[in-house]
Design brief:
Elements (H helix, E strand, L loop, with lengths): L8 H4 L2 H11 L7 E2 L1 H8 L3 H13 L3 E3 L5 E3 L6 H18 L16 H14 L4 H19 L6 H12 L3 H26 L1
Antiparallel strand pairs: 1-3, 2-3
Helix pairs in contact: 2-4, 3-4, 5-7, 5-9, 6-7, 6-8, 7-9, 8-9
């Protein structure tokens, strides 16, 4: 297993955040088998936070538990991210189709990053899903995949947020096209991030 060289960053981020970033960026390749002990040593932490992180990562679909009690990084096949963002789009569109329009967060100047306002809008939509299971599914996609994508170097936060807002406030006929463009861009930037690290 490739030893993670995270240095000071490990003290600033949670174990789950570090592992999520390393897996989604491709720094820990698909199919990599890992143990709690190896990860704890690489990260300079005890096994308990690693164990808890792996349980959450398994629930989120980033790792799979093996019969030998190891885990391996999920294989992100050709359409993996397309399917994730398509599901996100469908869930958000179902809320917007009901007539809900999210409130724009207060003054843009209050936010240091476009991504914060963008994520706030996504989570406003999520809170309007009545089905708790679907809401948790959407929240997982938002917190793992959307959050990662909008923080990628290849993502133009200002243009992305403007496209997302245009979709939210567009007529129903145009909304589907604009949301599709927005989520296709998120997929593109994740794939660009992963290919730049390989």
């Amino acid at each position: 297993m490739k030893v993670l060289q995270l240095g000071i960053e490990k003290k600033q981020n949670s174990v789950i955040g570090i592992l999520k970033e390393e897996i989604l960026s491709g720094n820990i390749p698909c199919g990599t088998e890992m143990t709690q002990t190896e990860l704890a040593e690489s990260l300079g932490v005890s096994r308990m936070p690693v164990r808890e992180a792996l349980i959450l990562l398994e629930y989120q679909g980033l790792v799979e538990r093996l019969p030998n009690n190891h885990v391996k990084v999920t294989e992100f096949g050709e359409n993996y991210f397309k399917e994730v963002f398509s599901l996100c789009e469908q869930l958000e569109r179902s809320v917007l189709a009901s007539g809900y329009v999210p409130e724009e967060p207060e003054q843009q100047s209050r936010f240091t990053e476009y991504s914060l306002e963008e994520m706030m809008l996504h989570h406003q939509i999520s809170r309007k899903l009545c089905n708790v299971f679907l809401r948790k599914t959407l929240d997982t996609i938002l917190d793992i995949y959307v959050d990662f994508a909008i923080k990628c170097r290849a993502y133009n936060q200002k243009q992305g947020e403007e496209l997302f807002k245009s979709a939210l406030y567009a007529s129903p006929e145009h909304r589907k096209t604009l949301l599709n463009q927005y989520f296709s861009e998120l997929e593109r930037v994740i794939l660009a991030e992963r290919s730049s690290r390989c």
